[in-house]
Amino acid sequence: MTIRLNGRSLVTAALARCLQLRGLDVVLSDEAAAPASVPRHICINDVAISLLGDLFPDLGQAPIGHALTGREVIWADDPVPRLVAQEARVVDAALLTERLFATLDVTRRDEAAITWDVNLPDEAVPMLSFGDRILLTATVQLNNPLQPSRSLMESLTRGWIFLAPVDCGSAILQVMLPTPADAEGQLAHMLSQSTLVAPHVGEIGTTQCFPAAPAIRLAPTRGHRLFVGGPGMRLDPVSGEGLPTALRSAILAAAVIAHDGREPGAASMHYLDRTTATLLHHLSGCRSFYSDAFGDDPVWRLELRKSALAEAALRNVSGVSEKPEFRFRLEGLKLVDAMPPRDAFADRVPIGV
User: Fold this and answer.
1) Where is average pLDDT lowest: 6-10, 116-120, 201-205, 258-262?
2) What is the CB neighbour count within 10 angstroms for residue 298?
3) Domain presence at residue 270
4) Calpha distance 248→10 (Å, rounded)
């Protein structure tokens, strides 16, 4: 079995490693399904660091990005900042991707007999988006170093703002806005309101905007085509779970591909149900976060309404329940039959017997 990966990313590198551990052949194509663009620097949490370490044991021999010890947060009605201890790192996503691929034996050839295609561009399978909000990003100079090295996150009247140092003198600035209209003006207004982040922000570099509302590929598997990571599902950055979830989807995708020859269709359906359930759970968390912080803002209420309508449509079409039962479960890198739910009355003797 030969699997072609389209595009180089942290997630396709993780998938390649999982597939090779299952003894499958992997070839690489530079063609990739949108979205292909991501911020240059990203902040990854301890879960993502652990998953990458498990998949790429040699990665720990050299430092990965800039280490953070925690984050300082003002959210909604917090009277004072809360300090949350959690390991994280700010990394250059492109450099880390190259480091991961350097450890893999992946050839660049398309003439092999391809069995599966991963992240192949396919306009016939659109993404369903749960809103219009955007993430504005920039590299900024720090007015003073953050000691101890930590990230800052603050909710304001129209969105939230996040700052994480890349080194002692610069940082990534991320701003969540409910609409792309006048993004630069919204950024200036939010910085004028900020008491936690703004005092550290010096010169602001070139800004970029990225779609930030959750989204899902309506058919993440289609025949022997599969979407993994961002091309299959996008999470709102407020959760901090984007990369961990994408890496888990790579592990699951490898298990699905390896299993599919034994039960055609069943493993792919499991991937679809798992992906949908993950997205629905994520939407519930976003709704809670944003209702607490921005429930009185009319623009955010409209954004949350758009999300709710799309969520209702997805629930109706997918049939995935609030507490879904799955056909399979992961055991290492393999799909195995899920244990049937235990009958609570199985051990009781029926009355009258």
Assistant:
1) 258-262
2) 9
3) yes
4) 12
